[in-house]
Design a protein that fits this description.
Layout lengths: L1 H22 L6 E7 L7 H8 L2 H4 L2 E7 L3 H10 L4 E4 L2 H8 L6 E8 L4 E5 L14 E3 L6 H12 L9 E3 L7 H6 L5 E5 L2 H7 L4 E5 H5 L5 E6 H6 L1 H20 L2 H8 L8 H13 L11 H13 L9 H4 L3 H9 L2
Parallel strand pairs: 1-2, 1-3, 6-7, 6-8
Antiparallel strand pairs: 3-10, 4-10, 5-8, 5-9
Length: 333
């Protein structure tokens, strides 16, 4: 009888231990909230990481929300409403310039070029000189799309504030509609909007700002320095999942990628998704590694300086931590 009781007690202890380990510790997925600056096919590797279960493989329970705009995304990050932001690296510099005691650190790059295209209303042979004297429907002042656009225009001898009429008072979500309705002779658009405008015969893609402006840490996963210090294992797992997705995207066709990310773009035709992803793949917009290079960071500073948005140059080591990216590249194959 005593032996039977001992066996029963041992069985109860084993069951209780298993239950406790399942309720916490390594057995429980760690929650991470991402705020993306917008929903865009430009961020295809992020949706691949979610759809293919790469975050889950790393033991993370990721919740994605669209925070609509760089300022709102950064406010959500700084307030603790989200843990990780997917936004342009320039936002971390803006926070740094304001003297933040808890700076925002870039730890995993997702896109490495500008994602916009120059769309002309009229067909015909294109020359940058045609922009002089035109009405140009641009992007928000201080944002990376507009700064990369102005940087490109200056490279071609065009002063964006003197040589053309620059419109910047249209909300991001309404830029395409404004162009289609007749505003501007040229417009700067992301995909899939550029492909949609072409398909509808309302405009023609004539140049890529991504190709023209060079390598940039354009869209980056970042978090507060305090979060990084408190949860380094979470940041590492997150970066591992991002790199898995990057490798997957590099190894698959635009068609395969489009099929995978389609649930995030239910209102977009498959042929438009394929066309958009193909353009981004061909110009190397999707980063092959989560690490940010010093050259691309310095190019970002040049772009911001040219736009008059940089108070002082910030060394890459101040706001970039590549240690997680380096470990991911060495461990994920």
């Amino acid at each position: 009888m005593n032996n039977a009781r001992k066996v029963l007690w041992l069985a109860l202890i084993v069951l209780l231990t298993a239950a406790l380990s399942g309720c916490g510790g390594s057995g429980q997925a760690q929650k991470v909230k991402i705020g993306e600056v917008t929903r865009s096919v430009f961020y295809a590797p992020q949706y691949v990481a979610l759809e293919k279960g790469f975050f889950k493989e790393e033991g993370l329970d990721v919740e994605l929300q669209t925070t609509a705009g760089g300022d709102k995304t950064m406010t959500a990050l700084l307030s603790g409403a989200i843990d990780v932001a997917l936004v342009g690296a320039e936002t971390s510099i803006y926070v740094y310039q304001q003297g933040s005691e808890d700076p925002v650190i870039n730890f995993a790059q997702l896109t490495q070029t500008d994602g916009t295209f120059l769309v002309a209303r009229d067909a015909g042979e294109f020359d940058w000189e045609k922009l002089k004297g035109s009405v140009f429907l641009g992007q928000r002042k201080g944002g990376m799309p507009q700064m990369a656009g102005e940087f490109t225009l200056r490279k071609h001898g065009i002063d964006p504030h003197q040589d053309l009429e620059l419109i910047q008072n249209v909300d991001f979500a309404n830029i395409t509609a404004a162009f289609v309705s007749g505003t501007g002779q040229f417009v700067q658009l992301f995909e899939p909007q550029a492909s949609i405008v072409e398909k509808e015969g309302k405009g023609h893609v004539v140049a890529s700002f991504g190709t023209e402006s060079g390598r940039l840490p354009y869209t980056v996963f970042m978090t507060k320095q305090s979060y990084m210090k408190d949860r380094p294992e979470v940041v590492q797992k997150f970066t591992n999942a991002v790199h898995k997705a990057q490798l997957w995207v590099q190894a698959h066709t635009p068609e395969g990628i489009a099929e995978t990310v389609a649930p995030y773009f239910k209102d977009t035709d498959m042929d438009i998704l394929v066309s958009s992803i193909k353009r981004y793949k061909e110009q190397g917009s999707y980063a092959e590694t989560p690490a940010l290079s010093e050259d691309s960071w310095n190019n970002l500073l040049d772009v911001m300086e040219s736009a008059g948005e940089l108070n002082e140059r910030v060394d890459v080591g101040e706001l970039v931590d590549n240690s997680f990216a380096d470990k991911a590249v060495n461990s994920v194959k």
